[in-house]
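hiii, so i know i said id send this last week but things got crazy w the move. better late than never?? heres the sequnce for the chain we talked about at the cafe, plus the structure i predicted for it. fair warning i was half asleep when i ran it
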Amino acid sequence: MELRQLKYFVQLSKTLNFSTAARELFITQSTLSHQILQLENELGQPLFHRNSHEVMLTEAGQTLLPLAQQTINAADNCLLRLDELKNLMSGELNIGVTFSFACIMAETLTAFLRQYPRVKVNVSQSNMADLLKRLENHEFDFVLAFKPLESNPRIESRVLFSHQLTAVVNDHHALVSRTSLTLEELQNYDLALPLRGTRARNIFERVIADTDYHYKVKVEMNYVYLLFRLLRESNYVTILSESTVMGEDGLRAIPITGLDTEENLMYGCIHLLRNVFMKKSAQEFIRMLGESTSVIRRTMG
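okay and structure toks below
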């Protein structure tokens, strides 16, 4: 049994399609089929059910999958540890980030690349659920996102800062002079909200669940740049964490009062896989992130 064969097996288990798996592995389909067959012959049992319509894992395949992934992870960690012994800050650093953390990332990313030019940094932006799922699949070294409502035993979430939910308007809105708003008052304004499933929307839905308030939701979208443009050019109100709009010209975040403090808090976190070796570059980026003025300003705020 070879490590290469286990990697082929895991990739095919994800796609359940020989053509797709071969393409993603940068090998031919015949090579993939041959290596999987060799692995099955060595184990003495089939790992996949194959027919003209689909590919499915057998019971043996389902049993092997988590063990194969553990073996691959252990081998990768071994290589990382040996590379760290050279005391070289090089290689690649893979980071997942939600939109709310873009401003925080910018300051640290610039400083990090200036200090460690040999490290290639790959940053992917998506929603929190997608990023955490990809973290579990070892696609990222860490993820920057708010703390999810439900904890995951495989993921460690280190809190960077906490913020409450706010109503966001433009600098010319009738509400701009207000120091706070209530949930009841928000009924009087047209709302443009992030889609359900985003952290801010989830919290908003949770805090209004036991109320009789009726809100005028006119727009829902998952593209925050467009949402900000809409706010700047209209009288819509949106609901976001204060950290999301820090540094955004022309927008003002107004605290929402009358909410349970703990229920309303949004915790900005660094999410890491437990019991997985952390690259030196990841350790250094996280250290610099914690010392950045963007995070310090949010913590003090």
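btw DSSP finds twelve helices and twelve strands in the chain. thought thatd interest u
miss u guys!!
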